Structures are given as structure tokens and as C-alpha cells.
Prior knowledge:
The chain has 284 residues and is α/β, with parallel strands linked by helices. It has a single domain (5-137, 203-283), classed as 3-Layer(aba) Sandwich (Rossmann fold). 45% of the residues lie in helices and 19% in strands. The chain has helices at residues 47-55, 82-96, 108-119, 138-154, 156-166, 176-185, 189-200, 208-212, 231-240, 254-257, 260-283; strands at residues 5-14, 17-26, 32-36, 59-63, 101-106, 124-130, 218-222, 244-248. It has an eight-stranded mixed beta sheet with strand order 1-2-4-3-5-6-7-8, sandwiched between helices. Helix 2 (82-96) packs across helix 3 and helix 4 (138-154) crosses helix 5. Residues 32-140 form the AB hydrolase-1 domain. It comes from Nocardioides dokdonensis FR1436. This is 3-oxoadipate enol-lactonase 2. It holds the Pfam family Abhydrolase_1. Its EC number is 3.1.1.24.
Amino acid sequence: xxxxxxxxxxxxxxxxxxxxxxxxxxxxxxxxxxxxxxxxxxxxxxxxxxxxxxxxxxxxxxxxxxxxxxxxxxxxxxxxxxxxxxxxxxxxxxxxxxxxxxxxxxxxxxxxxxxxxxxxxxxxxxxxxxxxxxxxxxxxxxxxxxxxxxxxxxxxxxxxxxxxxxxxxxxxxxxxxxxxxxxxxxxxxxxxxxxxxxxxxxxxxxxxxxxxxxxxxxxxxxxxxxxxxxxxxxxxxxxxxxxxxxxxxxxxxxxxxxxxxxxxxxxxxxxxxxxxxxxxxxxx
Length: 284
């Protein structure tokens, strides 16, 4: 089934700044789904899932948060935090005229989705969370991203060199996920340093008490053998939330290379979240 796709943008006004954010819209209708990428990755990583969900009748939007993809990339660490990204999702919903949406994402995108549910619960119909980064991921996250922060701060030429090597490669001639990797490597050193610094020293996710208060239905996808996104975090989160459900991926690559099973589960979850809400509305 073919669905319409188009790129849009909106602006956020801050203290002395005006930042542009870009998104892609798939399909139409009032059953909204917002998908958020992993840290430093482009929104295009969710294109296959977005197309699948839109083909099932959902209205899907993929967003590049500030510092990601084709959105603006200010070099100010104060511009980046999970709460700030959550506010950007709410601003997107306001821009689209969507009162509610199923909010979901991968890694950082999952944490931002939780932030929206904790701070603006009336805007969240459900949560589609892959690889949340919580208590059990702290040490691995520091080990993984500290070298990137140090390189961006003290050896910015390394980030620039990688960008110069990867940017000329035509994305249309490489496999899809190779293109996503190339887009992720297309970074500016000052912006990378700001993003990682802002996330390191800010709130990375709602507290356990806040997570236990989230009543929206949630589908949590966890992977084994992934120290940065430990399966223990996904299992803990699904157990904490009153309406949480855990799905174990067969491998960290399942949703990338053999997505049929997880795509179907995601579509059923999103459609179910909207159907149950419609039943509640009719009863009211």
C-alpha cells in the first residue's frame, strides 16, 4: 500500500535563538504516531517502520530533534537534554495540531518518549520503546561516549575528517543501513560535543517513581547482549509501568535486518492504543 510522504519543518524560539526542526510525515488521519531516533542518528532510521505503520492506517511522523539529522545543531550544551527533547516533541504535536500521539523511539528516543509521558501525560496515547537507557546502562554509556566527547572537544579535527570522508558518498548507492551509518558520522565537532555534554550532565530519564506513575500502555522492546542497552533495563521498565509489556528481540539486529515480526507487533500495539482510546471516548 502506497502512502503519502512529505517533509516539514517548524521553529522553536528560545532566549536569543530561533532553531529549526525538520520532520517527515507518512500517511494521514488522526491516529498519530511520533518516532524518535537514537543519539546522533537521523530520523531516517525509522523510515521502514514509519512506512509499515502508515500502510496500516496510522499517521506517522519521524522527527530530528535538535542536534540530529537535518535539524539545526547549535553548539551550546544547554540546548540539549532529555527534558528539552521532550519539549520539542510536544511542540511538534502543537505544530501538527495533534492532541495526542503514540510516542516511540530507539535508545535516546525511548528515553525522550518516557520524558513526554512523565511531563505531558495528556499528550501520550501509548509508548513504543526500543532499547531504553536506564540504571543498568550507566557504566557502559560512559565508556562508550566519553571518548567521543573528548575527541570532539580536544581533537575536533578527527570528527571533521570523518565528516569529510563520509559526506561525499551518495546515499542512494549504498544499502539502507549503510546510509544511516554514513548520516550518523556526518557530524560537526562543536555540535557533537554540545549534545554529548548536555546529555551526560543532565537528566537522562524520568526517575523510577515517575516511571511507575506512567499509566499509558507501553510496548518495551529489549535486546540481549547489548551492554549500552541492557535487556535488564527494558525488563525493569516494563515491570515498573502499570500497562507495560516486554517483547524480547531475537537479536540487536532483528528490527534492522528481519523486521517483519517486530513491525507487526508495533503496528498491532499502535492500532490497539487508538482503538482502546476510541472505546473509552464512546463510553464517556
